[in-house]
Design a protein that fits this description.
By secondary structure, this protein is α/β, with parallel strands linked by helices. It has a four-stranded mixed β-sheet, covered by helices on one side. Helix 1 runs parallel beside helix 2. 26% of the residues lie in helices and 21% in strands.
Length: 99
């Protein structure tokens, strides 16, 4: 059976702002999908060390991005990676860690 793909909110971009928007939409119980070209996190994925983010003495960018994505998924946000092929655009779910 095909999954219902109707959403109240579509968030384009999985950087920190998109992940935060997805988290709050999910917490509000609004049917939400987050679209991203690759792994969630945006420029966080290129950041080695973050030492000034509230709640963390030290965290890497990829670790923070994954925690943000996991939290959004926990609140029911669907997360989809948009991959561009030579012929057409295809979508697939991005994986989240099971920690």
């Amino acid at each position: 059976m095909e999954k219902d793909r109707r959403y109240d909110v579509v968030i384009i971009g999985g950087g920190p702002a998109g992940l935060t928007a997805a988290l709050y939409a999910g917490r509000a119980r609004v049917k939400t999908v987050l679209l991203e070209r690759g792994a969630p996190g945006g420029q966080l994925l290129n950041t080695e060390a973050i030492e000034d983010y509230p709640g963390f003495d030290h965290i890497t960018g990829p670790e923070l991005a994954q925690r943000m994505a996991d939290q959004a998924v926990k609140f029911g946000v669907d997360s989809t990676v948009i991959r561009r092929s030579s012929r057409r655009r295809t979508a697939s779910m991005w994986p989240t860690s099971s920690s």
